Amino acid sequence: MSAIKYWVWLNALKGLGCVKIARLLDFFGTPENIYTAQDAELKEAARLSERDLAELKNKSFDRANSILEQCDRLKIKIITMADAQFPDRLKAVHAAPALLYVKGRMMDFDEEIVLCMVGSRKATPYGLVNAERLAYSLSKSGAVILSGMASGIDTAAHKGALKAGRPTTAVLGCGLDICYPPENRGLMEDIAATGTLISEYPPGMQALAGNFPARNRILSGLSLGTIVVEAAATSGALITANYALEQGRDVFAVPGNIDAESCRGTNSLIQQGAKLITEASDVLEEYSGLYPHKLIGTKEYKIPEAAQSTPVYETKCEVGLPEGLNATEAAIFGAVADEKTVHIDRIIQKTGLSAPEVLSALTILQLKNIIKQLPGKYFSLDQR
């Protein structure tokens, strides 16, 4: 019987978890030895509950066979801790997954400048522009961008890498046959075509809330450093940053408006010692000595205008976006369109832009007769 079946059987047992599986593997060496072990041996090997022992008595391969058939049909590879392809970086972290489900090209992560980029799902234009810009420049310079394919910063990071013509890796919190969020279907296909999709969850696993914090340890574990582009004080991106610190990896943060809630998490990371970055070179200088053969250069690359995205504030108002607005103007238009009248402080808070950026763009929008100023520094759409 193929050894892979024992790995899938062990990984699919309910409630056992990566920590207990690691203890069992340390003691028995292989999943096959765990499968054939007696109760007394299992109790000696790891701190197992009666429920754990009952689960280990389930010797059926029905679930494992089903997973293996799905993987074969979907062209998903299974890489276990015993395989040479399993990254040593990830193997070294606490509660490392026993196996990975992989779609696309499994690169040698241990030999690459892999950088995890994360941030808010509800990102502002400021965060989206900077995530895509940094990911593009880092990728052009030879780094590999890794993220979680979530909405917001993750999506912008993957897009920046793809626009640079470089592979990118997404670690999912669900099975590789499920696209989450659904609107990223095209992005998911692009990543699989040139880079890598990874999950510790088998096909069919839905995107459950509890999967994502666990997923984050893999994001940081595969990377030399984690870059947090934009994050509120309670953002899930900070979980990834904390994992990176626990794993002895570097943490970088992009500074933001001190008055914006969307930037409080990143600004706090900088206060706690994360390296403040504004350009790709701020990150790459940390690795130029160790990976000189991987770096194409450390100059700043700009995304060609034809390939640039225009992040727009997602307005709840049905008013159409006027033509010819840049990303900053579009964001401010959306913030104003949400309300009949809005104070300038509220515009700054909603967009995450700095006060000078907002004032400058508001002046231009007034000259274009798109927005008008009211008494008390309030603004509304110009209905003329």
Beta percentage is 5-15%
CATH top level assignment of the largest domain: Alpha Beta
Our measurement of the CA-to-CA distance between the termini, rounded to an integer number of angstroms, reads: 76 Å
The total beta strand count reads: 12
Helix content: 40-55%
Kindly report the CATH topology of the largest domain: Rossmann fold
Describe this structure as you would to a colleague.
- The chain is an alpha/beta fold and 384 residues long.
- The chain folds into 3 domains: 1-73, DNA polymerase, domain 1, CATH 1.10.150; 109-307, Rossmann fold; 327-381, Arc Repressor Mutant, subunit A (Orthogonal Bundle), CATH 1.10.10.
- The protein is built from 17 helices and 12 strands.
- The strands form 2 sheets. The chain has a 9-stranded mixed sheet, with helices on both faces. Strands 10-12-11 form a 3-stranded antiparallel sheet.
- Strand 3 (114-118), helix 8 and strand 4 form a beta-alpha-beta unit.
- Helix 15 crosses helix 16 and helix 15 (327-337) crosses helix 17.
- The longest helix has 16 residues, at 125-140.
- The termini are far apart.
- The mean pLDDT is 91.
Topology:
Elements lengths: L2 H10 L4 H12 L2 H6 L2 H7 L4 H7 L5 H13 L2 E4 L7 H4 L7 E6 L9 E5 L6 H16 L3 E4 L5 H11 L4 E4 L13 H10 L1 E4 L11 H11 L3 E4 L8 H10 L3 E4 L10 H8 L3 E2 L3 H5 L42 H11 L4 E2 H8 L3 H13 L3 E4 L3 E4 L3
Parallel strand pairs: 3-4, 3-7, 4-5, 5-6, 7-8, 8-9
Antiparallel strand pairs: 1-2, 2-6, 10-12, 11-12
Helix pairs in contact: 1-6, 8-9, 11-12, 15-16, 15-17
